[in-house]
Design brief:
149 residues; Ribosomal Protein L15, Chain: K, domain 2; 3-stranded parallel sheet; 4 helices; elongated
Length: 149
């Protein structure tokens, strides 16, 4: 026996249904679609996801996951270690001076001072928010915190 002698078993392979190839084929004229109606037309049928007129699942689900709080306030974070490097004793820390030193991009974004690092200089801090640990470090160094309401 050679490779070219191999054949599939008799009756195991069936030729495909060639529709629309004349009446003598048995699938001419209407090509096995019956006569008239939605399913006989080209492009006919309901389409994927159709649920019988009920609103489809894809339309019932929200477009994006999660929830966005429209009242959330994003603060520009600044650590006390950064203030230690950039400011001298007695300086005032506010949005304008932070922008001038390149710490924040815009002075209209609210600023929050965070307590990472050490502070040895007495600074006057006038920003929108100050964390409890940062406030303790600023006051321990002899500084003052003035939060805007």
């Amino acid at each position: 026996m050679q490779l070219n002698d191999l054949r599939p078993a008799e009756g195991s392979r069936k030729s495909r249904k060639r529709i629309g190839r004349g009446n003598s084929s048995g699938f001419g004229t209407t090509a096995g679609r019956g006569s008239k109606g939605q399913l006989s037309r080209s492009g006919g049928g309901k389409g994927a996801g159709f649920e019988g007129g009920q609103t489809a699942l894809a339309m019932r689900l929200p477009k994006l996951p999660g929830f966005k709080n429209r009242n959330r306030v994003e603060y520009a974070p600044v650590n006390v270690a950064r203030l230690e490097k950039l400011y001298e004793a007695g300086d005032t820390v506010d949005a304008e001076s932070l922008k001038a030193k390149g710490v924040i991009k815009h002075d209209y974004i609210p600023v929050k001072v965070l307590g990472d690092g050490e502070l040895t200089k007495a600074l006057i801090v006038k920003v929108d928010k100050v964390s409890a640990s940062a406030k303790a470090k600023i006051e321990a160094a002899g500084g003052k915190v003035e939060e805007a309401c």
